[in-house]
Amino acid sequence: MAKRRFRGRAAMLRWFDLSEQALGDHRTALNRLNVFPVPDSDTGDNMLATAVASRRAAAVVDSDDFGELLAGAGAEAMVEARGNSGTLLAVLLTGLAAPLRGCDRLTITTFAAALDSASVRAWSALSGPVSGTMLSIIDAVRDLAARRAAEVEEPESRAALEDALPEVVAEARRAVEATESQLDALRTAGVVDSGGTGLLLVFDALRAAVRGEDLTEDLLDGLHGVGASARHRADDGGARRSGAQEGPADPDDDAACELMATVRLDPLGAAGVRHRLDELGDSVIVTPVDSEPEGDGTYRWRIHVHTEEPEAAREALAAAGRLEGCTVSPLHSGGAAR
Fold first, then answer.
1. Number of domains present in the structure of the chain
2. pLDDT of residue 3
């Protein structure tokens, strides 16, 4: 295959296209791996939905500026995101954007800076961040990219980025393999982290886009849990998060729900909302959608929480700011979002 120069809008759209393809091809495997924070078997669905929303949003951004493309794609995907992994993938896209403002080409230096920004954004979005998840993969790749940027003689050259990206994918794969030993839920189930595995696919899509190559067909071969059922699923509670209700949630009951919302708040109001949601549930994500505030100093914030008190959570959001959208789904195996 002829190599394509990774520059501007067309190059970024190719990355989004390949990410969507990779996540679509492996959606079922990612769903099967999903045991943390709750074993609800839809990480693949949720990450794919984010990829689709990102690609569609980027397609209507009339700019070659990587920062603008990523910010637009990430913001739209965040508003549509479902579940922990789908939301975190959107958060990572928006985190990548800031250091790439004004860039129409990617280098190993700007890539390392973008990864560092994405890591900070992702860790700060979560109230209870833990290793052994997508966070571990982004940090491992960030560290490798920073080392390569410091080591190469010509860090701004195309060759430096092209040469580094196979190593990036290999490092992401090693980080995914390590997740099984970092979280008790994954160790018990005998699987690697599903969201981290999805992020590995996204990095492989970037490699393919930059180098003008195909996706790696056997990238997930040998990862524990891929192609086989987990040893412990929701039916025996082996991978269930601490505090979760035993058995599937009743859609008519207030127990074990996932709430996702978009609400307009200033930063102080967002901090208050995070505190209240930490009291009402777990798996809390509070992250701004927009990069710039409105004239009144407010931003749109994307909210995610697992809670047994969805009405109290909804009331807290409505009292804090202008609620622009809110959905509540029963949280159970095969049902709600991860």
1. 2
2. 47
